Amino acid sequence: MTQAANIDTERLTGLLQLMQRIRAFEQAAIAAQKEGLVLGAIHPSIGQEAVAAGICTNLEQADLMLSTHRGHGHTLAKGADPLAMMRELFGRAGGTCGGKGGSMHIADFGVGMLGANGVVGANIPIATGAAHGLKLQGSRQIVTCIFGDGAVNRGPFLEGLNWARVFDLPVLFVCEDNGFSATTRTATMTGGAGAGARAQSIGIPAIEVDGNDLMAVDTAARAAINDIRAGMGPTLLHAKTYRITGHTAVDPATYRPAEEVEAQQANCPIARLQSALTLAGVEAARLAALHTEALHEMTDIAAQAQATDWPDPALAYADVQDVGNPAERAF
Amino acid sequence: MARDTYLNAGRRAVIEEMQRDDAVWALGEDLGRGGVFGQYKGLQDMFGPARIADTPISEACIMGAAVGAAMTGTRPIVEMRFSDFALCAVDELVNQAAKARFMFGGQMRVPMVVREPIGMWRSSAAQHSQSLEAWYAHIPGLVVVAPSTPADNLGLLKSAIRCDDPVVYMEHKNLWALEGDVPEGEHLVELGRAEVAREGDAITIVTWSAMRHACLRAADVLATKGTEVEVIDLRTLWPWDRDAVFASVRRTGRLLVVHEAVSVGGFGAEIAASVAEALHHHLKAPVRRLGAPRIPIAYAPALEDRARVSDDAIINAVQGLIAPRTVA
Ligand SMILES: Cc1ncc(C[n+]2csc(CCOP(=O)(O)OP(=O)(O)O)c2C)c(N)n1
């Protein structure tokens, strides 16, 4: 961030705005969960917004993306409508999945977001297959697959990466490494050097990047995406970041020392991009306004979601399958 | 009509559907060499390695990749070699393929066919012999098919490939060589429709897959003794043809379900319970199931046969059910 003078301040201000909106969306969701309005588990990505923003800004809308249980940020960054997303979290009609998925299954196929997934690592083979399908159809679209550091210890990681290499598929694998698998430090459960080394052993280039540095993620993602679109096959981007909240919105995260969390708060990607932009001459008041605008937008969206009807209970039987009658044995 | 084998009929189904629809492709281990049993023989020459794709030994990824590929507009046929190995890909089938359409609010569908050969074939032991159809019939979102004749293997596989739901398609390994009459032109069999394989009024036997043939043999023997057995081949386990089964049991008043899979928790339990719930006033005898004991399948023929439902066991069960009830 020393070359502050050369940066494209307009574009980066737009990305800061996106990051603020992601954070405000999740803050509104956490507040709603505390009131019992958002049910189930939600996994905030507060502190990890630069990964979502830095990658998605380099994707085209037609490109596909698959995400994890911590997928709100990725989904917003891919272009989904925050009101539909919030309705989904509230389980209301008009949610991205009609209230059938909730936070962990947020998806908006209209913007190429093929779904968050509740099973760690499960989206890796699916993303690989999506890329395989695209390749068979001669498409120029690419697929981005975001997973956590915990996923690299599951078999589907190995199987999916190997497959992508063998078939030379257009996939960007992103390991969004926040250091934790739920309450356990992933490093203590991982043999060897982790995601990048494992990818390289399969013949997939791996780039490690400071995931809290928006500009670094942006630059790395752009290069990787260009290569993939040029037909060079898969790449893995290993973005090191930190989640500032607990694993879920109700996790007090007492397994982490307070000093560590404090230090990471100062290192948060929003704070870092703000200071870079200030240094580059963007008015502090303008940046501060982005923050308050985002808060207003998302508080308002949460209120609208709350005011939305529940889905028609009859829809519990819809979209199960065409063949057979899902209501057959209903009482 | 022409004579053909169960194996060739399945192969013909794949060829016809791949010629009809460019979106159809197949993936699995060793498909280039024709697949484990030759079901794909010559297809890579016909359609090229991209559409008859050899894959790594990565069952989870074969299944998961098919889910992703189905979501993006293709229609994959997944080859799992044996239903036993499909257990390596249960998350991908049960948590992903079966639920995606519902979970994502109907934004897309997952049109894929998972071919999982089932059943005992001599001395293949515990990890290559199972019939696991009940597991999948239990999962909302999946269609489960178990063809028993060459004609049905053609017509049902074609329907499965055209189906927009994920279909678990379970061919029986011991039937590959079975010959039968197969229609010559376009032949489709509707999913979810049973076939009355033999008519009779003394008792209804409901069965599927290879057990159809054992039941028909048993029925021949019983006919010589004056007992006319109705044999219904379910063909599709989910959805199963309740109307056909209920209509028959209403007439005969007796039901025996015969399947090769372990009896405990088997799909026969579902049929028996449904009939008992709905038709108890029509029943002249208790409903009965015949399936394997709850033991893994052994290698030595003498032990393996303990897991096999024999023709005699079917005959005995029928005779037990039609014998006049003795008053204690
Ligand atoms: C296969 C599977 N096992 C366990 C879980 C429970 N679980 C949910 S999130 C999580 C931690 C995942 O860690 P990581 O992949 O690093 O992602 P992060 O939560 O840190 O974003 C676990 C264990 C799960 N969802 N899926």
Structure description:
The complex is a heterodimer of chains A (331) and B (328). In chain A, helix 1 packs parallel to helix 11 (284-306), helix 2 runs parallel beside helix 3 (72-78) and helix 2 runs parallel beside helix 8. Chain A has 11 helices and 7 strands. In chain A, the strands form 2 sheets. In chain A, strands 1-2-3-7-6 form a 5-stranded parallel β-sheet, sandwiched between helices. In chain A, strands 4-5 form a two-stranded antiparallel ribbon. Chain A is of the alpha/beta class and 331 residues long. The mean pLDDT of chain A is 96. In chain A, helix 8 links the parallel strand 6 and strand 7. Chain A is globular, with a radius of gyration of 20 Å. Chain B is an alpha/beta fold and 328 residues long. Helices cover 36% and strands 18% of the residues of chain B. Chain B has 12 helices and 14 strands. Chain B has a 7-stranded mixed β-sheet, with helices on both faces. In chain B, strands 9-11-10-13-14 form a 5-stranded mixed β-sheet, with helices on both faces. In chain B, helix 10 (267-279) links the parallel strand 13 and strand 14 (288-292). Chain B is globular, with a radius of gyration of 20 Å. The N and C termini of chain B lie far apart (54 Å). The model of chain B has no long low-confidence stretch (mean pLDDT 97). Chains A and B meet through helix 5 and helix 6 of A and helix 3, helix 4 and helix 5 of B. The structure holds thiamine diphosphate (TPP). Thiamine diphosphate binds next to strand 4 of chain A.
